[in-house]
Amino acid sequence: MERLYPRFIIIHHTAGHDVPALEIDAYHARRGFGMVMAEPKRLVEEYAERGFERAEGGVVIHIGYHYLIRADGSVEKGRPDFSQGAHCSSSGMNFKSLGVALTGNFDSVDNPDGGKGHPEPTAAQMKSLRNLLDYLADIYQIPGSGIIRHRDVAGAATRCPGDRFAL
Ligand SMILES: [Zn+2]
User: Which terminus of the chain has fewer CB atoms gathered within 10 Å of its CB, N or C?
Assistant: First the structure.
């Protein structure tokens, strides 16, 4: 497996309800995303204990994001930082970025009445997001210009993470 060295961080909303990473994992499995993590063994066991599917020599991880931030501000790990994501195919971003997603649907067109998830980021989500971005930018030495919304990526035909999201 080719290791990812992140140079960008892409911010998403899940466009849906506040659900755990494992539920997003099942959803992304149906879309055909997925990678097998065979090592490090300690991390494999950690994911297996969280409920990720065991496979020959490791665990299968379908969730395309590296991090998921829940409405209550808790941060759940998706893919390990060292593996390619499946969250933004435009501009080759899956090969050079970390994907961070907030649960909810922050788009006023797609989700005018909140029926598809909470309609704007919670204060707890934004606090956790800022802490996470500071942490990741620090360890990977990513400049502020490298922290972008999905919709800002060249070639990405999306409104993600919605017009109600502002950094
Ligand atoms: Zn997105």
Answer: N
For residue 57, how far is its CA from the centre of ligand 1 (angstroms)? 31
Structural domain boundaries in the chain: 8-21+63-152
The whole-model pTM stands at 0.96
CA of 14 to the centre of ligand 1 (A): 7
**Cα-to-centroid distance, 49 and ligand 1 (Å):** 28
Q: What is the pLDDT of residue 56?
A: 85
Give the tens place of pLDDT for each residue, 19-52. 999 999 999 999 888 899 999 999 999 999 999 9
Distance between Cα 84 and ligand 1 center (Å): 15
Q: What's the 10 CA to ligand 1 centre distance in angstroms?
A: 8
3 state SS of 60 = strand
Six token digits for residue 100: 């961070």
Give pLDDT tens digits for 68-82. Answer: 999 999 999 999 999
Q: Structurally, what CATH architecture does the domain formed by 8-21+63-152 represent? A: 3-Layer(aba) Sandwich (3.40)
